[in-house]
Specification:
alpha/beta; Arc Repressor Mutant, subunit A; Rossmann fold; about 220 residues; 5-stranded parallel sheet
Length: about 220
């Protein structure tokens, strides 16, 4: 797989490039947000490692732009900002995952492999739950024929629910599988994401698909 690194810090970029090359990945490097957009939209890279703070155009703006253009390429965002609000902002811009600097390279490899597995396994599969459809390979979500736009983490959350439709999902499972058991992520953050997802896929429709199972978790109506 070819990985695009969008990072203006040459030391970090060289460290990442050398490590990824040693792991057998092909690597492209871009130093600013503006020139990264056409590279990403060309489809040449199978995954993007994207820094938030970039000259010209921020990583957040890059992510929003490529998602608006229909790109579903997995994005792992790098940030020196470690507050919950900053991380939510990154995920809501369309990123699939994030790492806070400084990070462990082995953890980065683990995140990359997880994103790669999900991308490979789900490519071309259209998921359905009642009148809701999601195509992970194109990032297209529709309900009753109406197209719905989600953020990166919302896509991941919806996909998680749709692959487990009809089953009860606990907050502990969501924390482990989607938030990697990060200590600063609390259940109220998960509730916020559930609320935002419901606003997109349930609010303007007659049937609510995401059910709250009191004291246990959630379930997507099958």
């Amino acid at each position: 797989m070819k990985i695009l690194i969008v990072e203006d810090d040459q030391k970090i970029a060289s460290f990442l490039r050398d490590g990824l090359l040693e792991e057998g990945y092909e690597v492209i490097h871009c130093v600013n947000g503006e020139s990264s957009v056409p590279l990403i939209l060309s489809g040449e890279a199978g995954l993007v490692v994207l820094d938030i703070v970039l000259p010209g155009k921020s990583g957040l703006d890059v992510c929003r732009e490529i998602r608006a253009a229909g790109s579903g390429v997995p994005v792992l965002m790098l940030t020196a900002r470690d507050s919950i609000d900053n991380k939510i902002e990154g995920l809501d811009s369309g990123a699939d995952d994030y790492l806070t600097k400084p990070f462990n390279f082995e953890e980065m490899l683990s995140r990359i492999r997880a994103l790669q597995r999900r991308s490979n396994a789900f490519s071309g599969t259209v998921l359905k739950a009642r009148d809701l459809e999601y195509n992970p390979s194109t990032g297209t979500v529709t309900r009753m024929g109406r197209q719905i736009t989600l953020s990166g983490k919302q896509y991941a959350l919806l996909e998680y629910f749709m692959r487990r439709k009809g089953r009860i999902i606990t907050e502990a499972a969501l924390l482990a599988d989607l938030w990697h058991n990060e200590q600063e992520v609390e259940s109220n953050i998960i509730k916020v994401y559930i609320h935002h997802l419901r606003q997109k896929i349930d609010k303007d429709f007659p049937l609510q698909l995401i059910k709250t199972i009191k004291g246990i978790g959630y379930k997507l109506d099958a």
